[in-house]
From TrEMBL:
It comes from the Bacteria. Residues 23-89, 90-184 form the DUF1285 domain. This is DUF1285 domain-containing protein. Pfam families: DUF1285_C, DUF1285_N. It comes from Pseudomonas lalucatii. InterPro entries: DUF1285, DUF1285_beta_roll_sf, DUF1285_C, DUF1285_N.
Length: 189
């Protein structure tokens, strides 16, 4: 499935219309057609056959049909399902808008493909620590089992908004959004 025309064939199968919103990829169950040589790098760059996809509208279109099943990522149309590689997360949160403050604060993220997501109970924030370096890797849930890696500059904004809160017998630094407290890291003693 690594022929150069495969990405174009896949694009031709994506339903086009005037309706807003994302295609219902969660409802589509076509046969698996194999893997294609497409990769999403950790920085959110998309590659096809080792070459960057420079056309943003094409990247946005592909990003609208991505689905994660278990640990695997696929591009899905009503008639075809192909596997792709994702180095970390399929999206990168590159912008943050803050409304309100304190427990009434609401955090609105924008991804590199212009998806917008509000951190809340259905779209939680989480932070993983690298076992070797102890460097944090923050994520926000975007949709249906898909996350965005939060860009370093946006994470710095979150850290500046962090407040302490007692949880499970410890004091955590974290942020509020839509009435939910999201821990970032234990408060240093």
């Amino acid at each position: 499935m690594s022929d150069p025309g495969k990405a174009g064939d896949l694009l031709a199968q994506i339903p086009q219309g005037k309706a807003k919103g994302l295609p219902p990829v969660h409802l589509w169950n076509p046969d698996f057609c194999g893997d294609i040589d497409m990769r999403i790098a950790r920085d959110g760059s998309w590659f096809y056959m080792g070459t960057p996809i420079g056309r943003k509208p094409m990247v946005k279109l592909f990003s609208s049909i991505i689905r994660r099943d278990g640990d695997d990522y696929f591009l899905v149309t009503p008639v075809e399902k192909v596997g792709i590689r994702v180095d970390d997360a399929p999206f990168v949160a590159v912008g943050l808008r803050v409304a309100g403050e304190g427990e009434a604060q609401v955090l609105h993220f924008t991804t590199s493909v212009e998806d917008e997501v509000t951190a809340d109970a259905e779209h939680p924030l989480r932070v993983e620590l690298d076992a070797q370096t102890q460097e944090p890797a923050p994520y926000v849930h975007v949709r249906a089992n898909l996350e965005a890696l939060i860009h370093r500059n946006v994470f710095y904004q979150l850290v500046e908004l962090a407040v302490p809160r007692e949880m499970d017998g410890r004091t955590w630094l974290g942020v509020w959004s839509a009435g939910v407290f999201f821990p970032i890291a234990p408060q240093p003693e």
